[in-house]
Design goal:
about 30% helix; alpha/beta; globular; 23 strands; five-stranded antiparallel sheet; about 775 residues; five-stranded parallel sheet
């Protein structure tokens, strides 16, 4: 998992650290913080070191506790040696001492010891976002993008120094009433103005997005308020007069009031969005079609077993059949064998009937898509039936809860007290499930085979314990819902049936697994009229693209044949308007770059995972519309196909790593250096107008400081545009089969280096990374 920020803090400052983490993540900044992000079974020290090397920024919470902590000093030393950007934030009116003073030198710091904390966290978030978007100084004036082979995360950037000194902080003053009045007024004004903005002129989809942001910010404000209450408690212990104690008690009460106000504002926003979505759905929903299900496949309300011998049971009130158990090792192994998807193993031994672990939300989605396509092709599923993850509401029904439909998963978490998957007894009785040995001696130190414990009232196993189960819903703007706890979790609050946890959709661990549901039509199967066999002299109509012939799809994306490639190549990179259609329909998160783009520019800030999801969506969409046949699909080009399309031909055997830069002196435009006029969108003299410190290709000017509309430059011999420059293009392959990095080809508007512009140059990055110069093009696979 890739993170932007490592938060270094003393355990005695945990409340402020948690508030800082929540606030930054509410602003789209991915944080690593201990102990939350240390994986089950992982070594504490090595996890810390890996996280420091993987994060671009370290936020140091500087306090008297931090000054006294040997662990903090080691972390700062590691960060300095790794060349990380360090932002000290003083949460007490103290200066760095001893080793910290030595390692930090004389950088400017952010003072955050005067209330309210929220104002300082806003300044911190703004500073970090600026660092993450604008490349830090390097020898070339830009951040190196490549990743050392020995590292598991992207290369850290050089240390950051603030060029403009921060203003001198005001003298430290005791907590008083003035800041509370100002903050209360600000919260009320923001709530009123914010809701007016959110629910003014906007589509229902946009309102959902805004509401989720509002909810996440409200949760961050809760954490900030709790941190301020803790500070007020500490100050109260030092108070010398009854008047001062009373003022501090009032401060705590006001913080609690602000927390309630923020929660109510978020709930109101969500309620408004729900009403808009219901109205839109009511207006757009056509009359229900008559049932056309085939005689095969699952039927709502009936038991069913699929091609992998996975069993499914009905659950009252759920319009799907629930997997009787979690997806097993042998089920997931079949998917991995057929697709080649990466699947790291846990540090313990499993049987084939144990639940599959080290599976992310993205992995679980890919499994569902694969199994749906497989069984639809085999005739086991009808076209309107599919596998997916259970929703949060469905999972609650399946575990036996009767919850309100109001509220988000985060708001419902832990609200029903004293009810567990096994009943109301605490601690759990013998045989309740696979939980930590400290709670119950269930005989399993790690995962257990599915079916090892009693099923619940619906015949479902392990609805509590064994592994956390991914659900479809978001927990907040950046994480997905997990339910059910695991063999690793033992707190009474975490084992509640109503407890929810959240994790990043790309996260994997030895306690994360999933179960699936199969969505079925509410009608029983009916007989269909046998198809009429066409006359031998009449050819069946051709559906979709034909190998060797140009083609245009439903989004207006054009495809050309490339000799030697058994697919049609996208003529240009996926455009902003193409990707926007996908985002609009699916609600997938899509951060925007810092610069302006047209709808015909290539979509950027797109990860390998995002590109895969786009391909899956477009394949399903066009198969359902009859524009693609059942054996036709969109995907990313393979490394060898991309080489043929750029004009290199067959490069022979070997991995992408083996072939990297092996063909010298050949570029997408030819053999000339520097590139001739009109060669493509690279980092030329035009870039200096916006980025004066960057190195550029001397004497070359393409007219675009960032991305350019597709087709702005000449196509190659196969009619393909931007096979060099504009944006890096994700490919299907791994750079090195032994590592997780995925491959990118073609360089971008950000590049000027001679070797990086070679047609044979391969770049690599983490599949979940998004950057303003990462895009993709797709191919459509057709039958010959």
């Amino acid at each position: 998992m890739v993170y932007d920020v490592f938060i270094s803090h003393s355990s005695k400052d945990k409340t402020v650290a948690d508030a800082t983490c929540a606030w930054l993540e509410a602003h789209g900044i991915r944080c690593w913080i201990a102990p939350r992000d240390i994986q089950p079974g992982a070594n504490w020290g090595s996890s810390i070191i890996k996280a420091i090397h993987g994060a671009r920024v370290m936020v140091l919470l500087l306090s008297s506790h931090a000054n006294a902590s040997p662990q903090i000093k080691r972390e700062v030393e590691r960060a300095v040696n790794a060349g990380a950007i360090i932002i000290p934030m003083r949460i007490e009116d103290v200066l760095p001492q001893d080793d910290l003073e030595y390692f930090l030198g004389t950088p400017h710091w952010l003072d955050a010891f005067t209330p309210p904390l929220e104002l300082h966290l806003n300044k911190l978030a703004a500073a970090i976002n600026e660092i993450l978007e604008i490349p830090a100084p390097a020898s070339s004036g830009r951040v190196p993008e490549d990743v050392p082979e020995t590292m598991a995360e992207p290369e850290p950037v050089p240390r950051f120094t603030i060029e403009t000194p921060l203003p001198k902080p005001p003298p430290h003053r005791p907590w008083g009433k003035g800041w509370l009045i100002s903050l209360s007024v600000a919260v009320v004004v923001l709530a009123l103005v914010g809701l007016g903005y959110y629910f003014g002129v906007a589509t229902p989809t946009e309102k959902v997005r805004r509401a989720e942001i509002a909810q996440q910010e409200a949760q961050a404000k809760v954490a900030a308020a709790e941190a301020e209450k803790q500070k007020a408690d500490a100050a109260a212990a030092q108070a010398k007069s009854e008047e001062e104690k009373a003022a501090l008690e009032k401060a705590k009460q006001d913080a609690e009031a602000r927390t309630v106000a923020a929660q109510q504002a978020a709930q109101q926003a969500r309620a408004e969005v729900d009403k808009a979505k219901q109205a839109e759905q009511a207006a757009a929903t056509p009359p229900a079609p008559q049932p056309t299900a085939s005689a095969s496949g699952p039927v709502l309300g009936q038991l069913w077993e699929n091609s992998l011998w996975m069993k499914f049971n009905p659950v009252p009130g759920v319009n799907a059949l629930f997997g009787v158990w979690d997806v097993r090792v042998k089920d997931y192994a079949a998917f991995v064998k057929e697709t080649g998807r990466d699947w790291p193993k846990p540090e313990f031994t499993q049987t084939e009937n144990d639940p599959a672990v080290m599976v992310s939300w993205d992995d679980a989605h890919a499994f569902c898509d694969w199994l749906t396509k497989k069984e639809q092709a085999e005739g086991r599923l009808a076209s309107n039936q599919e596998y997916r993850l259970p929703t949060d509401a469905e999972w609650s029904k399946a575990v036996g809860l009767n919850e309100s439909s109001e509220g988000t998963p985060a708001e419902k978490s832990g609200k029903i007290k004293g009810v567990y998957p096994w009943g109301t007894q605490w601690p759990p009785p013998q045989g309740a499930g696979n939980y930590p040995e400290s709670l119950t001696h269930d005989g399993y130190a790690n995962t257990s085979p599915v079916g090892s414990f009693a099923a619940n009232q619906y015949g479902l196993y392990d609805m509590g314990g064994n592994v956390w189960q991914w659900c479809e819903d978001k927990y907040n703007s950046t994480t997905r819902v997990l339910r059910g706890a695991s063999w690793y979790i033992g707190g009474s609050g975490s084992l509640l049936s109503s407890f929810r946890s959240g994790a990043y959709p790309g996260g994997r661990s030895g306690s994360l697994g999933f179960r699936v549901v199969v969505v079925v039509s509410p009608y029983p199967p009916v007989a269909t009229t046998p198809p009429v066999t066409p006359s031998p002299t009449v050819s069946a109509p051709v559906i979709g693209p034909v190998l060797g012939q140009p083609w245009e799809n439903s989004l207006g994306m054009k495809f050309n044949p490339v000799p030697g490639v058994n697919a049609l190549f996208g003529v240009w990179d996926v455009r902003v308007k193409d990707y926007a259609a996908f985002v609009k329909e699916t609600g997938r998160d899509w951060p925007k770059p810092e610069f302006t783009q047209t709808e015909n520019d290539p979509a950027v800030k797109v990860s390998w995972d995002d590109a895969h999801a786009f391909c899956d969506w477009l394949t399903k969409k066009e198969q359902a519309e009859g524009k693609l046949g059942p054996n036709q699909s969109y995907r990313l080009p393979r490394d060898a196909e991309w080489s043929v399309a750029v004009g290199l031909g067959d490069e022979g055997a070997g991995t992408p790593k083996d072939k990297d830069q092996k063909i010298k002196g050949v570029y997408p435009w030819g053999t000339q250096w520097p590139p001739p006029v009109g060669a493509g969108n690279y980092c030329g003299e035009e870039t200096k107008s916006k980025h004066p410190s960057w190195t550029v290709i001397t004497g070359y000017n393409d007219g675009y400081a960032e991305t350019s509309p597709v087709r702005s430059f000449k196509a190659n011999k196969y009619g393909l545009y931007d096979m060099g420059g504009n944006v890096w293009q994700w490919c299907e392959d791994k750079y090195d089969p032994t590592q997780e990095y995925r491959l990118l080809r073609g360089a971008s508007w950000y590049h000027d280096e001679l070797q990086g512009l070679l047609s044979s140059y391969r770049f690599r990055n983490i599949p979940g990374n998004r950057r303003a110069n990462f895009g993709f093009r797709v191919v459509v696979e057709v039958s010959p």
